[in-house]
Amino acid sequence: MLQIIHLKTNRMEGTLPSEIGSLSMLSWFDVSMNQIIGTIPESFGNLQNLRDLRLAGNMLSEPIPEALCSSAAVHAGLAQHCGCDAIICPVGSYSAMGFAPGKKGCTKCPEGETTRFLGSTECQNFSQQDFLGMLYDAVGAEDWWPIDRREGWKDTTVSECEWKGVVCDENGDVSALSIPMARNAQVNSNGRAKVYASRTILDPRRERPPKIDFSEKLKNPSSPDVERILGQTFEDLKEYYHRH
Prior knowledge:
Elements: E1 4-6, E2 13-15, E3 28-30, E4 35-38, E5 52-54, E6 59-60, H1 66-69, H2 79-82, E7 93-94, E8 107-108, H3 128-138, H4 141-144, E9 166-168, E10 174-180, E11 186-187, E12 193-194, E13 198-201, H5 226-242
Parallel strand pairs: 1-3, 2-4, 3-5, 4-6
Antiparallel strand pairs: 7-8, 9-10, 10-13, 11-12
Helix pairs in contact: 3-5
């Protein structure tokens, strides 16, 4: 039976397979320093013989399986002292290994710095441009925004104020965004797809919508309350990544 999977620094992409949780004899699983996205499958909590779990340096997000966070076996039972930190450091904290090195848990990022994903090995200072890039990724813009509406987005060689639909004030701070709002394409009479309707959001002249939980992550950009979600996303991103 397979006991060890060691694939550290292999430029791996994609998500963690839930089937890993069926490897009953697995004791060591290391896929650190790759480009894995998504979450840790709930099935990982079934790995009763797992002793060493290394997921640092990927692009993983919550939730973390509760069974792992209470494991008495992984990393010598460290979870008994610091919970999920023993499995992987939360957003806003770090360690050289990506999980708690001891009973005190992961180290909180310094003031003004944070992390973007679970299991980070260092903190960084995110700029306004970084947050706009996160918004772009969060709505899946690469897949459905028309090409002309993506002009400049995520181009780090120019100011974010030059990105299509981004409006900045005299200080270079974003004051408004005008971006596509409807994801579902409709074909008009000449056979061409009409894929969006633009609206301006984050306009200080408008009444602010109520606060939302960023965990919604805009999974369905065509939902009825899309304007409310998008209208708060930029500010929520900043709050989410700086509240630690």
